[in-house]
Amino acid sequence: MSYPVLITGAASGIGRATAVALANTGRSLVLWDIQAGPLAELAAELAVPTTIAAFDVTDTEKRHEAYAAARTAQGGFSGLVHAAGVSGPEPISAFTSEAWGRTIDINLTTAAVMTHELADDLANSGEGAIVYISSIEGYFGHAWLPAYCTSKAGLLGLARAAGHELAARGVRINCVCPGAIETPMLAPLLASDDFRNSITMRTPLGRVGRPDDIADAIVFLLSQQARFITGTSLVVDGGLTSIGGI
Ligand SMILES: NC(=O)c1ccc[n+]([C@@H]2O[C@H](COP(=O)([O-])OP(=O)(O)OC[C@H]3O[C@@H](n4cnc5c(N)ncnc54)[C@H](O)[C@@H]3O)[C@@H](O)[C@H]2O)c1
């Protein structure tokens, strides 16, 4: 029997869709998010063993309590999906170290520290795999999103470097880079018809992405079908960046 996959940011959007998709393949789950209500509602819908914890994933003490509770309930971990993220719009001209630090901490540093903390579990599982949710913003730059773009580019480097080290222990690490996806994070932008139409027109596959488009790519990268893939990224954007990006 497989150990569970831990998903951060599981209460909403891409993390939530990933929980549903993994449950549909029979994988057991550990789900973390800062939003307690939606997390409990999701867990009640899933028909696989599921352990939940609602807290800020940057909180080291709470993370260690939640690891311990999950190990007691389900024995260990076989996968990690770091989907918790914030966009933190703030141009460099309005830089504050507090806003910059918070975005980098949630999006990037927590991915690194959790990779360190889970390395033994993932290696011992014999099928360990990690997926960080980067973004096409990891390849592009936007004036209003410097911390976000930096955090997402950082995840690409982290997957290469940590993937190199942990390959020797049989643990694979990859990124998924979504394009524009219909989630609460992008809702304020997609509420504008101009933005939505502009994305749709510039996407060869002709629509805004859905959370399950990304979840299916994550399920693949966690599975044995991806057994020879590590240290790289998979762009899932309907072709948006193939013709020049956003
Ligand atoms: N929506 C898009 O178009 C898009 C595109 C590229 C990348 N992404 C990335 O996908 C990931 C998921 O985003 P989404 O679009 O599903 O957004 P979302 O807002 O629906 O989900 C993000 C989740 O992370 C949780 N979260 C945020 N900070 C947290 C913290 N400190 N502790 C615990 N939980 C926390 C939120 O509560 C939320 O449930 C993010 O990393 C985002 O940057 C999204």
Task: Describe what this molecule looks like in 3D.
The protein is built from eight helices and seven strands. With 246 residues, it is α/β, with parallel strands linked by helices. It has a single domain (5-181, 211-231), classed as NAD(P)-binding Rossmann-like Domain (Rossmann fold), CATH 3.40.50. Helix 2 links the parallel strand 2 (29-33) and strand 3 (50-54). The longest helix is centred in the middle third of the chain and has 29 residues, at 97-125. The model has no long low-confidence stretch (mean pLDDT 97). The structure holds nicotinamide-adenine-dinucleotide.
Residues in helix, %: 40-55%
The secondary structure category is alpha/beta
Shape: globular
Question: Averaging pLDDT over every residue, what do you get?
Answer: 97
User: CATH H-level name... which superfamily?
Assistant: NAD(P)-binding Rossmann-like Domain
List the secondary-structure elements in sequence, H or E.
Answer: EHEHEHEHEHEHHHE
Secondary structure tally, helices: 8
| N-end to C-end Cα span | 43 Å
Portion in strands: 5-15%
Q: Outline the biggest β-sheet.
A: 7 strands, parallel
Number of domains: 1
What is the CATH T-level topology?
Rossmann fold
CA gyration radius, whole angstroms: 17 Å
Strand order, main sheet: write it out.
Answer: 3-2-1-4-5-6-7
Bound molecules: nicotinamide-adenine-dinucleotide
CATH structural class: Alpha Beta
At CATH level 2, the architecture is 3-Layer(aba) Sandwich
Keywords: Oxidoreductase
Family: Belongs to the short-chain dehydrogenases/reductases (SDR) family.
Domain Ketoreductase: 3-187
Pfam family, one: adh_short_C2
